[in-house]
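We treat protein structure as text, and this decision shapes the records that our systems exchange. Because each token names a local backbone shape, the row as a whole describes the fold. For reference, a complete record is included directly beneath this paragraph.
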Amino acid sequence: MNKILPAVIFWLTVSAVFAQNAKNDDIKNAAEIPDRLFAAMKTKNFEEIRNTFTPEGQLVAIDKPRDGKGVSKTRVFTAENFAKTISEAKSADFIEKMPNKDVRVTGDLALVSGRYTFYVGDKFSHCGTNTFNLVRTEAGWKIANAASTLEFQCERDLRA
């Protein structure tokens, strides 16, 4: 019994360390998906944008009125339509940043959310909140669905 107990404690400790390392890797990998999407949006690369989503993935844009009052308008994009809309835009680079991500992983589901700012070239456009529901696939984490508010009262985000 005296030899078994230390072995069990050792095995539990090692298992816990491996589990924590795997969880940390999942958090890091999930957090990178929005950044991959933003990089693909900046270069307007249809395939790279599309590949951040699952085949049936979608994005919901929640457009707040410019004055911040009233009911928002909602637009729903399939991953394909979103990639096409961004890749065919004739404007300057789209630069989206989400510096403080909250990442939660539960098994094969991850939620990545946070405030963001959006520029077209060097001109500020809007800010808002992003949420990304990711699923683990054989190819890694993919966006199953996402939602973004588009807001224009952005003083706090621009100061951050």
